[in-house]
Amino acid sequence: EAGVAQSPRYKIIEKRQSVAFWCNPISGHATLYWYQQILGQGPKLLIQFQNNGVVDDSQLPKDRFSAERLKGVDSTLKIQPAKLEDSAVYLCASSFDSYSPLHFGNGTRLTVT
Amino acid sequence: AQSVTQLDSQVPVFEEAPVELRCNYSSSVSVYLFWYVQYPNQGLQLLLKYLSGSTLVKGINGFEAEFNKSQTSFHLRKPSVHISDTAEYFCAVNGGPTDKLIFGTGTRLQVFP
Question: Could you say which of B43, B49, B103 has the minimum Cβ distance to residue A42?
């Protein structure tokens, strides 16, 4: 089966600019996650979707971060405006349901200068 | 809230030697425990998981882990490592199938020839 697809792989922007990341989960996976992985730290959950509804966004900085999952398939994570501390790898993961193992994409490495 | 501690940030080891990567979690009534591996510039891949039953869990690539409730530990072991095992290893925990997955800070395993 095809894995979780993410794009772009790398992005460099200046602070206060906007950026968007795209994720296409494994076909049939109802649950989709966005994680932020700062260098030297473990992944931190930003938001979890079940189909196109939000299950958990308690750690999403809502003043600058937004995410959507239209039609319960693809998802987009946006940062506007970006700060230096947003430099990290953004990982998308999907699972068949919330009881199943997570499958991760290769991530998008964001550098904010 | 659940938490995970990986005391060793780096573990250097020679090829064909045994290795143990340590993981301790905060005590809870019930826990589900996981080990993920992350190769350079890739997403995370599930190595093994403990949900219930036998405390010795076998995973992919010859890895195994033992759930020790009294010591709140879930250490990862491999009797003989290979160069290709060089990667970052993350321990993770949640309190149930619908609970948020909490990751440790990771242990970098470096295998030398």
Answer: B103
CA distance A16 to A41: 24
Contacts of A95 in chain B (CB under 8 A): none
State the Cα–Cα distance between residues B43 and B104, nearest whole angstrom: 15
> Which of A38, A102, A103, A108 to mutate: most B Cβ within 10 Å?
A102
**N-to-C CA span, chain B:** 41
Residue with tokens 């906007």: A18
Mutate to test the interface with B, among A47, A99, A108 (most CBs of B within 10 A): A99
Low-confidence ranges of chain B (pLDDT < 70): 27-28, 97
How would you class A28 by CB atoms within 10 Å of its CB: exposed for 0-12, middle for 13-18, buried for 19 or more? Answer: exposed
Per-residue pLDDT of A15-29, as tens digits, reads 999 999 999 999 999
Q: From chain A, pick out residues whose CB is under 8 angstroms from the CB of B98.
A: 98-99
Instruction: Return the closest-CA partner of residue A93 out of A42, A40, A60, A47.
Output: A47
pLDDT digits (tens, 9 = 90+) for B54-71: 889 999 999 999 999 999
The mean pLDDT of A63-84, rounded to a whole number, is 95
How are beta strands A75-79 and A65-68 bridged, if at all?
A: antiparallel
What integer best gives the mean pLDDT of chain B? 92
Q: Tell me whether residue A66 is exposed, middle or buried, using C-beta atoms within 10 angstroms of its C-beta: 0 to 12, 13 to 18, 19 or more.
A: middle
